[in-house]
Each structure stands twice: as C-alpha cells, then as structure tokens.
Amino acid sequence: GVRMRMEGREEMQGAVGLRCTWDIPPPAGTQAKWVRLNVGGTVFLTTRQTLCREQKSFLCRLCQGEELQSDRDETGAYLIDRDPTYFGPILNFLRHGKLVLDKDMAEEGILEEAEFYNIGPLIRIIKDRMEEKDYTVTQVPPKHVYRVLQCQEEELTQMVSTMSDGWRFEQLVNIGSSYNYGNEDQTEFLCVVSKELYNSPNGLSSEPTHKAKVRL
C-alpha cells in the first residue's frame, strides 16, 4: 500500500509542476531574465523576452547563447561592436513595435543596424518610410516656362488649335498692324503661352518633348 501512495504523490507533484512552470525562476546566469548589452561602450539593460521578440535576430541568438559565443565585459554584459546611437531605437522597436526616431537621426543609419541585427519587420518599416520620403521630395512644385509667339490675326485660330499638349494659352497682346497687304491691314498679335515643367527626381528639369507647333 505504501508504494501506491508514493506513486500517487509523485503524480500530483508532476501535475502541479506542469501548471506552474512559468513561476519557477530560470536558473541564474545563463537564462537570467535581465540582459546587459555593451554596444560600442554604452550599456543597455533589457530583458531576454524583448531581445527574442524577433526570433531570427542576432540579438535573440546572442542571448540564448547557443550559437554565438560573444565576448563579455567585466560586468558580464555582451560586447557588441556597433554604434550605440542607433541601438536605442532598435531596442525600443523590439519593446513596443514602433519606430520612433529623433528628427536628426538618419534612417539610413538605423537601416544599417537593423540589417546587422537581422530584424526583418524593422527593415521593412524603414525602407517604406524612406520610399515615402523620396516620393514626397520629388513632388516639387512645377516651374512655369513662358513663350511669346508672334502671329497674324488669321493665324491665331490655327495656332491655338495646334498647340501641343501641356502648353496653355495665357495672354494675347494686340500690337497693331505692321503690314499693308493691298488695302487690307493685317493685325499682328503677340501670343503668350506657358507650360509647367516638373522636376524629375534627379534634379534635372524634364523639358517638354513637344514644342508648340507654330507657324511663324
């Protein structure tokens, strides 16, 4: 009968143990909850859970300590020879999933570090942001180019109707008659047309390919 009771008690303990695994503190040292990182001389304190948010990252592999035998400083912090400036935003991204940058901080710098630490979601976010920024930079206001064309009254209609794409009729100036054809005076006009030039991303103006087709 004694043996039965013992087995019963062991089963009970097993069940309780299973239910409470998260209560049992991890063994000190290797799997401690807090992790110190010495990034280029600046010490960051974070948790193993934060570093392992992104399973494939260098930081997750580092604090699991299986594959990467990293050097440690005298306080036991993992030594990482990277720029600490950009490590703060990377650590914060792992903490709360948002990319928060000071306005002076270069996104290229963060991207470089995100790629080094292999944090996929962060790399995608930064690339998206950089593309958006590029897009807004290229949306520069158009420049206006004006051309003045001289023509006679009878040519006006034809000229306006044959104006090519993008050219807009702005103004007509009557400069009076300068020629006598027999008895008939031909009135001369100055016709002002304009076109918008958009700056292309490389900073060169894209000159309109169609010039206004005008018989002068």
Automatic annotation (TrEMBL):
Highest taxon in the source lineage: Eukaryota
GO annotation, cellular component aspect: Cul3-RING ubiquitin ligase complex; cytoplasm
Residues annotated as domain BTB: 33-134
GO biological process, one term: protein homooligomerization
SMART domains: BTB (SM00225)
InterPro entries xrefs: BTB/POZ_dom, SKP1/BTB/POZ_sf, T1-type_BTB
Family annotation (SUPFAM superfamilies): POZ domain
MF terms (GO), sorted A to Z: cullin family protein binding
Protein name per the record: KCD17 protein
Lineage start: Eukaryota, Metazoa, Chordata, Craniata, Vertebrata
